[in-house]
Each structure stands twice: as structure tokens, then as C-alpha cells.
Design brief:
about 260 residues; alpha/beta; Metallo-beta-lactamase, Chain A; seven-stranded mixed sheet; 8 helices; globular
């Protein structure tokens, strides 16, 4: 499997700051934030599957534009995978004819541009030899992370999460773990905001990483614009022994 980072920022501003979008091979997305908009029309048309971690706008904002842009170019609907609560939010508050048309009914209910596939926590979906499993996340709305497993290696994406003991129970059982992408949205002076919004700050990240029993490359995502250097310095100060590095647009991971 090959994962390409299209967006990994907690906000926007300039061409280097795009919200969460991870392209797996050529046909699969983990979330669909603003980073998706940098793909060419031909690349967009090849996306068949979108695995959504949760319903917040920075993770789903490009789904409506993607479907509207390439739906008529394709012979099959784009499939959005998410837990039942997240799918309900997308139905009720995004594809609801008020914010955006319901593309599960366009051009017809029998041949739509978009379809939903419900997944459950711990459930694995196999697509052309690739296994994608929904992992526990602890956020302000129903949320999951994802375990991507090629058989040769695994990548974990935490999604948006605060303190999360349940995640580490799963991660510590993965024998072929290579990469861990984990969020740290706030600097330490904003720990209160991190706690009430169920994100991490560097001190909280260090506590979480202490629960990791396996070796892996650790990459930090969802940094807030304007606090990137400060937050990464704080991560180095309190979590440096794990050698976390900052995720950046355009990075590739093969596993």
C-alpha cells in the first residue's frame, strides 16, 4: 500500500496548509478535507472509496465537491464508509438538499453518484488485498481512527482524539506496525482547549505514547497554524525519546 499525504493541518493558509486528506494508492481516501482539492480531475475521478473518521467539516468538506465534480464521469458510485452515527450526520446535515444535494438520489436512486457503507468499531473492510479496520477514537462527536494493513506492514491513523486507552490496546497487538500518525492539535498553554475539544497537546501526547509497547515511526498531524513551531518544540521537549516528526503535505508512506 502507498499512502500520500494531501492534507494534514488543523487549518488553512497558503499552499502548504490543507486539512486532513490521505490518499491510499490511487482509489481510496482517509478523510476528505481541503487537501483533496489539489488533485487533478483525472486523479479525482479514480477515487472509489472514502473512509471517514468523523463528521467535522475539516475532514469531510471536499466530499460534496468531489461527488459533484466527477459523478457523471464515473460508471459506479463513490462509496463513503463510516459508522452509523457519522453517516446519519452526513445525511441530516450535509447531503440534505439544504446544504448540498443528496447525491445518493442523483441522478437516480437506482444509479446514484454516492452510496454509504456502514462500518462498526473493530470491523475490517477488505479491498483488493488491503485491509482497513476502524479503531477507537475519543472525540466530541462519534469518531474512529483507522488501521491500514497491506499484510507486509501496517499504518495507524489516530484520527481526532483525546486520551484514548482503547486505541493502545489494539495498536499494541499489531505485529507488523510500521507507522503511527497521531494528532496533536494544541500547544501546552492551550491544554484546557485540548481537553474540552478532545484533542491532544504535547504533554498529553507524551502520556499517550507511553502506552505504546511497539516500535514505529511516529508522525504528528493536525497542528494548528500559527503554533506549529511551538508545538513541535514542546513535543521534542516532552516526547523526544519517541522521536516524533511533523507530517507534511506530499509525504509518501509505503507498507
Amino acid at each position: 500500500m502507498r499512502l500520500r499525504v494531501l492534507g494534514c493541518s488543523g487549518g488553512i493558509g497558503g499552499r502548504h496548509l490543507r486539512t486532513t486528506s490521505l490518499l491510499v494508492d490511487h482509489d481510496m481516501l482517509i478523510d476528505a478535507g481541503t487537501g483533496l482539492g489539489d488533485l487533478s480531475l483525472a486523479e479525482l475521478a479514480q477515487i472509489d472509496h472514502i473512509f471517514v473518521t468523523h463528521s467535522h467539516l475539516d475532514h469531510v468538506t471536499s466530499i460534496p465537491f468531489l461527488v459533484d465534480t466527477v459523478g457523471a464521469m464515473r460508471t459506479q458510485p463513490i462509496t463513503v464508509y463510516a459508522t452509523r452515527p457519522t453517516l446519519e450526520i452526513l445525511r441530516n446535515h450535509l447531503f440534505n438538499w439544504s446544504i448540498w444535494p443528496d447525491f445518493t438520489e442523483i441522478p437516480s436512486a437506482e444509479a446514484p453518484f454516492l452510496r454509504y457503507a456502514e462500518i462498526s468499531l473493530g470491523q475490517s473492510v477488505s479491498l483488493a488485498g488491503r485491509e482497513i479496520t476502524a479503531l477507537p477514537a475519543n472525540h466530541t462527536v462519534p469518531a474512529v481512527g483507522y488501521h491500514l494493513n497491506s499484510g507486509r506492514g501496517s499504518l495507524i491513523f489516530s484520527g481526532d482524539t483525546g486520551a484514548n486507552d482503547a486505541l493502545w490496546k489494539v495498536v499494541n497487538g499489531i505485529d507488523n506496525l510500521k507507522y503511527l500518525i497521531i494528532e496533536t492539535a494544541f500547544c501546552n498553554k492551550e491544554r484546557y482547549l485540548a481537553e474540552i475539544s478532545k484533542h491532544l497537546c504535547p504533554d498529553m501526547l507524551a502520556v499517550e505514547l507511553a502506552k505504546l509497547d511497539r516500535s514505529a515511526e511516529i508522525w504528528i498531524t493536525h497542528l494548528k497554524p500559527g503554533e506549529i513551531e511551538l508545538t513541535m518544540q514542546e513535543i521534542e521537549d516532552c516526547a523526544g525519546r519517541w522521536k516524533p516528526r511533523m507530517l507534511q503535505n506530499g509525504q509518501m508512506f509505503e507498507f
